[in-house]
Amino acid sequence: MVVTAVVLNSMSEMSSSTRDMRLQLRKQRALLQSIVEAPDCVGTCEAVVQMCSALDSGVFPRQTSRWWIKRRSGGTWEDLRLSDDTTEDYYKEKLRMSRAMFNQIVAACAVHVEKIVTHYRMSLPVEQLIAFTLYRWASRETYESGTSAFGIGRATGLQDVCDVTAALLNTYPDTIKWPIGRRRVQILHAFRDKGFPNCFSAIDCTHIYIDKPAGAQSDNYYDRKQKFSVQAHVVVDLDLCILDVHVGYPGSVHDVCVLHNSNVWRRAESDGLFGAPPENLPHGVVTRGYLLGDNGYPVKCPWVIQPYGGIFQGPDEERFDTRQKVARGGV
């Protein structure tokens, strides 16, 4: 009897649950039928389908990626053409300049770089050519790697660097020059605020890495870091503006030799470089101008001020070296 009661109870529960399911299905069917019979149902469905199709075809722009989403690389040139939250940082990372500055250079140099469209080929965009040259200078990558990232051939890349260099020299002939007038006064005041009155700028040499030179004594270009390079002697102010540059000596040449053969040395030795009003410094020193340099420059050069250096320094020497390194930190 007990077993029979349990079975009957289970069957009644199953039948009640089945009735509930059937009732729920009837309600859903009735609701769906009422929606279908509504006058705006077909139009709404068609509008949804058209909206999905438009989004898929790219008619409406997709939302730009947020800064925390890593950019999908399609090559350096393709990434530079994108416009999203990381574009400005990407330009500074790859080209060492803002996008606005890049556009300004393109607008100024386009007439010198633009190629003629022929029956045999379409010319590359001016933006792509200038971007490759700037990227090559900023990254120091090989031509094989750089041209691959920009989708151009190696021969095109070699010629492009020459063309863009000539265009920049023609467009900005007076950008690198020794300061005069108001600009010189501003530089002198800036260095005076750093504790160096009558200081014009800071000087240093750096190495520009190159491929192994063909048809020349390669040992001369082999520097102390076991790489092929040429020396670049640069003079800059506190605003990182280049005032003088001298490039071309092999990487094995010492900084002093580059300085002795530069235009800065000739002008400084002939008293035609500085010309500021005389300034009385401690210990009876009178100067009309000088540059800040590191310990690689000769101590006997009166117009290049080096740090004391050494391990055992007094408080005054240590304070001077700290200020001197901070003031010439830009170079």
TrEMBL record:
Localization (cell): Nucleus
The cofactors required by this protein are: a divalent metal cation
Asked whether the UniProt record includes Transcription regulation among its keywords, one would answer no
GO terms (molecular function) for this protein are:
hydrolase activity; metal ion binding; nuclease activity
**Where is the DDE Tnp4 domain positioned along the sequence?**
203-325
InterPro entries noted in UniProt:
HARBI1-like, HARBI1_dom
Q: Which GO terms describe its cellular component?
A: nucleus
Keyword Metal-binding applies: yes
Keywords annotated in UniProt: Hydrolase, Metal-binding, Nuclease, Nucleus
Family recorded in the similarity comment:
Belongs to the HARBI1 family.
> Which PANTHER family does the record associate with it?
GH03217P-RELATED, PTHR22930
Q: This protein is called what?
A: DDE Tnp4 domain-containing protein
